[in-house]
């Protein structure tokens, strides 16, 4: 069993090596960018009544510009990763649903389970970290919308320029990373992918039941 486990581990390591490394690299960059946006949110909030507020806003928009450049460079990569993981996921489902094969059923079950688990973990990791950037920018918008309302309601003394900047930050639309500009990446995409996989399973099971009915 130990030899079998080591062999399966080596097999899946080689199979998922390039996609996994790409996912890790992409996720790290996404995390750094989203973390930078959140830190800059707090810095801007602390400097609202100071002259350095404008400087911190410029830094914020530079981070957003970095996000856009990162999307331009990596949107094809993330599209290929999603396509690869979808293919691997359907392969794993096919292994679990296979009924006739020369390979022992236990090995098919183990390979299919490992394949599906690895694929799900990688996809969820990729999409969660990628959706961190728009989530951080949404925090920016909500924070400065509340601040703008507070300034208006409480009649706080602040320069007109700063009020305009706060209002502009409150109206900022979140930026979403894309998969080759075909669709935006957010957490909702997780449910879409697994919904498609579930539909695939139901379709295969229905086809099998129809074939069995015809044989009878």
TrEMBL record:
The chain crosses the membrane at residues 78-98, 105-130, 189-207. Keywords: Membrane, Transmembrane, Transmembrane helix. The keyword Transmembrane helix applies. This is Gustatory receptor. It comes from Nephila pilipes (Giant wood spider). The gene is AVEN_162839_1.
